Amino acid sequence: MTNKNNHIFIISEKKFSNTNDLIKKICKDFLSHTDEKELYYKKIDNNNYYDYIEYNLYLDDIKIDEIRELKRKFYSIALENAGYKFYVIRNIELLNARAANSFLKFIEEPPKNTIGIFTCRNSNKVLPTIYSRCEELRASSNLNEVEEYLKNNINENMHTFYLESFFSLDEIKIFNECKNKNIIISLYQDLANSLQDNKKVIDNLAQFKKLSYKEIAILVHSLMIGNKIENKQKLLEISNNIKFNLSKVLLFNQIINLIK
After folding, report:
1. pLDDT for 4-46, tens place per residue?
2. Which domain covers residue 44, as residue numbers?
3. Out of 10, 73, 85, 206, which residue is the most buried by the measure of CB atoms under 10 Å away?
């Protein structure tokens, strides 16, 4: 059980942790003494509890305007009669310093019955001003669930790619919804194996330019997990620069330079 005297939690993930279940458990713990708790449990399970907002920094950075909007919503009257409001930020270690500074006072002095839940893959990379205010929970790995999903949804010859390239089942599901999934797989295979003669570079650049910035972020994260350790920090820097919508040619050249 979570400590209901706390209002902010951070979940340290392992690869293929079932973080969703732990997030739902935290929400349900706070709703457990409310009237009609079974109704609220069902809403949490079905992702339609009105006073719940989630951000995933694996996909998008949080902009200052979005933080202002979050504050506005959470300082207003709750839509659910339960009175509790929940905000979730996945991969909190990717939060940029400017956004964190804007967010810090809200974290320290939130409105009544406001519960914050963060996830992280490496607690050492979370800003100390945020980490020190959180109760830390640890998620266990659930590889069986991932393997079952792959068995039911993915061709067997691609299982190794998914297991090596992604950190969570959520990332796998997000990837499978990408319009250009097959382009990303092809690029990953060429880039990860340094298959880059001049013709291949030209062909891959043409394909790379078809990707959205979110899809480029997924490709770079896949390379980070499967690539040599000395390149991971540089790939992380490239990943952080994607949000600035830099030239796709520039981003591609930066990646190519790392794998030569």
Report:
1. 678 999 999 989 988 988 999 999 999 999 999 999 999 999 9
2. 8-138
3. 85
Overall average pLDDT of the 106-117 stretch: 92
Q: pTM for this one?
A: 0.78
Residue 3 lies in a domain: no
Name, in order, each residue with C-beta under 8 angstroms of 1's C-beta and a sequence gap of 6 or more.
Answer: 29
Alpha carbon distance 74, 72 (integer Å) = 6
Distances (CA, A) of 238 to 47, 93, 244, 246: 33, 16, 10, 10
pLDDT band at 64 (very low <50, low <70, confident <90, very high): confident
What does the alpha-carbon distance between residue 221 and residue 116 come to, in Å, rounded to a whole number? 26
* Rounded-to-integer distance, Cα 35 and Cα 109, Å: 26
DSSP string, 57-74: TTT-PPPHHHHHHHHHHH
**b/e 54-88 (16+ beta carbons within 10 angstroms → b):** ebbbbeebbeeeebeebbeebeeebebebebbbbb
Quick one: 178 and 214 in the same domain?
Answer: yes
